[in-house]
Amino acid sequence: MKIIISYPEKLNNEAQLINNLFEGEMDCFHLRKPNYSEKEYQNLLAQIAPKFLTKVVLHNFYHLSEKYNVKGIHGKNENCISCSTHSVDEFNALSKNYEYAFLSPVFDSISKINYKAQTFDLSKRTNFNTKLIALGGINEHNKQQAIDMGFDGIAMLGNIWQNGQLNLEYFNAQKIICTTTDL
After folding, report:
1. How distant is the alpha carbon of residue 117 from its chain centre?
2. In the Cβ-directed half-sphere of 128, how many Cα atoms lie within 13 Å?
3. Nearest by Cα to 3 from 148, 112, 156
């Protein structure tokens, strides 16, 4: 499964870039724009091809999920399909309602300066109801290492969006995000 997280800032032709990612075999897109207004969120969602909206997960303005028929919402409440965690204990404590959860940072972050890798002892994992997705510093050199460590899949942000530019060529060439199981 290929999970890509949006570039946090506004981009030119952003909806077209997102549509291109889906054409390039992206399975799931996390729309995370912390500085966007609700109107900006709606404008962007309205420009994404309707056939792709069911593969979009919202990080803000959850009430828009029904209007745009998106895959789901990301956060820590009972209606969310995914969330972010930062320890194995936190991941293990998640309720069964989550399809998957990010655990980060697995490697030194590409997009967040000084956000350094943490050591996660995945042998202590007890939650197998929720897929465990590696996030943080994922690139072509370590993506398989994350899977070999015991993650069910990986997600990318910094290696796909380089200085606000979509690295679509890289994305298509890698056939990433690999998983050991389907999400």
Report:
1. 17
2. 5
3. 156
Compute the Cα dihedral for 92, 95, 98, 102 and give only its sign: negative
Complete DSSP assignment for 127-172: --SSEEEE-SS--TTTHHHHHHHT-SEEEESTTTEETTEE-HHHHH
d(CA 167, CA 19): 14
Where does 24-109 have alpha helices with state H? Answer: 38-47, 64-68, 88-92
Class of the domain covering 3-174:
alpha beta
Instruction: Say whether pTM exceeds 0.70.
Output: yes
Give the list of residues 6+ apart from residue 3 with CB closer than 8 angstroms, or none.
26, 27, 28, 29, 30, 133, 153, 154, 155, 156, 177
Tens of pLDDT, residue by residue over 27-71, are 899 999 999 999 999 999 999 999 999 999 999 999 999 999 999
Q: Report the helix count and the strand count for the chain, using DSSP H and E.
A: 6, 10
Ramachandran angles phi, psi of 170, nearest 5°: -65, -45
